[in-house]
Amino acid sequence: MDTTEDSPPIDHIPANRGLVDALHYKGLISADARLHALDLLNPRDQWGVWIERLLATCGATLVLSGLIYFFAFNWRAIPDFAKLGGLEVLMAGCVALACWRGLQRLSGQLLLLAGFVLLGIFMAVYGQIYQTGADAWQLFFNWALLGLVWVIVSRFAALWALWIVVADLALVLWWQQGINVLWSNRLYIYALVAALNGSLLLLGEYYAQRGLPWLQKPWPRLLLLASVAGAMVPPSLAWIFDSNPNNAESLMMGLSVLVHIGLFAAYRYVLKNILGVACVVLSASIVAESAVIRLILEMNDDAAGFFMITLTTIGLFALMLQFLRHTAGELSHE
Amino acid sequence: MNEMNAKTLLGQLQGEGLLADEQTLAQSIISAQVEDALPLYLRILAGVGAFFASLSFIGFLIAAELIDFDEYASMTFWGGLFVALAIAMERMVRGSSGMGHAFGIQSSFAAMAVGKTLFVVGLATWFDSTWAVPIATAVITLITYQVYRLTLDRFLSCTAVWFGFWFNLYERGGSESLFWLHNVYVLLTLGLGLGLLMSARVRQDYIPIAYASLLGVAWLVCNLHITPLMDWLLRDNLFNSAFLNICLALALCGVSFWSVGHPRQLANRDRVAIAVLALCLAWLDVPGILLGMVMMVLGYARHDRLLLGAGGLCIGVFLWFFYYSLQLTLLAKSASLIGGGIALLLAALYVHKRREVSHA
Asked: How far apart are the first and last CA of chain B?
């Protein structure tokens, strides 16, 4: 039999280095079998490719970081034309090298990423030298706008992730600096962030379903999903804990409910992705838990109230746990 | 890395004629599995729920005045009682399924969190010493480790022990006699973490200890240069960053040699290249990069995505905090990073050339 009463079946047990070494240590497989198993799990060719990518990515990151530090240190000593000219030469060099290496290679993509980072540094230097009086949001906005073409042609998830961070920063800073926002409307920024990231998530999932190879890794889409679901949590908590919520807070709470339902439906029934479902469920659990705490403490804020909160919290998360297990089982059969 | 399950692997080995008895092997693999086989996302959900539940239950205990929080014996006793209750609940629902199992696990986890907290606070109050906190945590962790098999609980408890001992060393850091203790503590915990992850003799049960050790070392490495709280360790020569860098360089070499399975798998020139790269990074004083690479290589070799991701995060966090270090000027830091980056790019080029040669 492949299973015991409490253990998973053998085809559910992942094969990894620890398993192979443990079998060899117990004398259940020979040294040759061990080496052969390790080669099956991590073929030599794949090792070489992965190590090369790791070294290239870390190396590029360190060099870029070092350049940022260098400019920060020598800021006052460098003449203005050298600041701008040097950055332009570096940017052009990175883009030219990226074209030469080709964007289908990791080195080409990393060079384009470096070019994008240098573009941001260039925008900051330009703003410092010419003292245009522009707000910080304009720097990030122009950075995102000017770099968008590179980001699209790169087909590189890491560069897209960086661009999304820049775009989000531009949006948040615009909200804080670019317009006068009434206190009562302060929560709408979360809707804007969710809308921006949600649109990109929708595009990402659409093209991933279409089979675009560079979108097949799930981590960028899961990060976007977490940002969309996460953006709905603060306005939900504001509505829950406000004793007299205004129209904006109520509207945002309604939006939060709709967004959670929509994301759940999409990841459960359309995309059939258990990690996506889990992310949405976790976000919803935090909101639900906060609502439970508020409701119970309003009725009874002494010992009995805390005890009720304990029981309902355990019940709520147990329900979510069981629900996710059941959903995972269903999805594995679909 | 290739994702495959144990059955597929055994089947392929059997097909190559490298296995004698596939059935016996399969039984051995199944019996060695850790019982807490929840996927990571479920463990996170359970952990968040238990966190809220334990906080509210402690609130209940305070509001109801069931426990006298000024009386250490009472706290220690109730702490032990809740721990025992947690173990009993976990045993009761083990092997069951459905809503009852989920409710039981959540309740058990919350009870364990409350029990350990009361036990540790009780003992710390009793002995009136900050050393009592990590010692009490270590005692209760040792007692419950083999009987309470939730990996998240094991990991959190071991992490608390690491940080408890570290902060006590830090509080007493003004003494010269404790100089080597800081360095030896980090060396031992780094060695413990890596040893547990690389040794074939270690059961899966002890992997949370390894994760906790590496988390502690990663935290130290990332924080070492940044805050005034930590800077004085270097400034007053109570912590030797050269020692740390050499240890991490040796760790990178060791992990790299281990990851290929057997020393024969690496040519001499490859071993020399790894050693040169590691020593170069150590000389440039970028411990966060070294540790991040150690974790990523180890994670890739072990098919451990959590470790792989943690290594990448360690590098990113270190680079962010390194900017704020007061120990070095920005120019010196810039030189370190650019030098390190060039070394890594040259290493990437070397690997690329070696792959071309082996394909030719």
From this structure: 23
Q: What is the pLDDT of residues B100-143, one digit of tens each?
A: 888 888 889 899 999 999 999 998 888 888 888 999 999 999 99
Q: Which residue has the tokens 């960086």?
A: A162
Question: The tokens of A231 are what?
Answer: 């953006």
Please state, in angstroms and as integers, the Cα–Cα distance from residue A87 to each residue in A170, A291, B235, B264, following that order.
Answer: 22, 52, 35, 47
Angstrom distance (rounded) from CA B208 to CA A162: 32
Going by C-alpha positions, the residue among B126, B112, B110 that lies closest to residue B76 is: B126
For residue A29, the chain B residues in CB contact (below 8 A) are: 13, 18-19, 25
Find the angle CA(A35)-CA(A36)-CA(A38) to the nearest 5 degrees.
65
DSSP state of A244: S
Tell me the pLDDT tens digit for each residue of A155-178.
Answer: 998 899 999 999 999 999 999 888
Lowest mean pLDDT across A118-127, A139-148, B255-264: B255-264
pLDDT interval class at A2 (50, 70, 90)? very low
Question: Is B82 in a helix, a strand, or coil?
Answer: helix
Instruction: Give the residue among B128, B154, B151 at the shortest CA–CA distance from B137.
Output: B154
* H-type alpha helices, chain B: 6-15, 22-31, 40-64, 72-93, 98-127, 132-145, 151-171, 179-198, 207-223, 228-235, 241-259, 268-283, 287-301, 305-322, 330-359
End-to-end CA distance of chain A: 25
Minimal Cα–Cα distance from B252 to chain A, Å?
13
Which chain B residues contact residue A39 at CB under 8 A?
Answer: 261
Between CA A234 and CA B119 the distance in angstroms is 35
DSSP secondary-structure letter at B178?
A: G
The residue of chain B nearest to residue A40, with distances taken between CA atoms, is B2
pLDDT in the model for residue B251 = 94
Cα–Cα distance for residue pair B34/B206, rounded to 1 Å: 10
What CA–CA distance (Å, rounded) separates A308 from A301? 10
- How many angstroms from the chain centroid is the CA of residue A65? 21
The answer to whether A314 touches B110, Cβ cutoff 8 Å, is yes
Contact B33 A8 (CB under 8 A): yes
Which parts of chain B sit beneath pLDDT 50?
none
Helices (H), chain A: 17-25, 31-41, 44-73, 80-101, 106-130, 136-154, 157-173, 188-209, 219-231, 233-241, 247-265, 274-299, 303-333
**C-alpha–C-alpha distance, residues A47 and A17, integer Å:** 14
Q: Who among B44, B201, B348 is closest to A52 (CB)?
A: B348
Please write the tens of the pLDDT for every residue from B247-295.
999 999 999 888 877 666 677 788 888 888 899 889 888 889 999 999 9
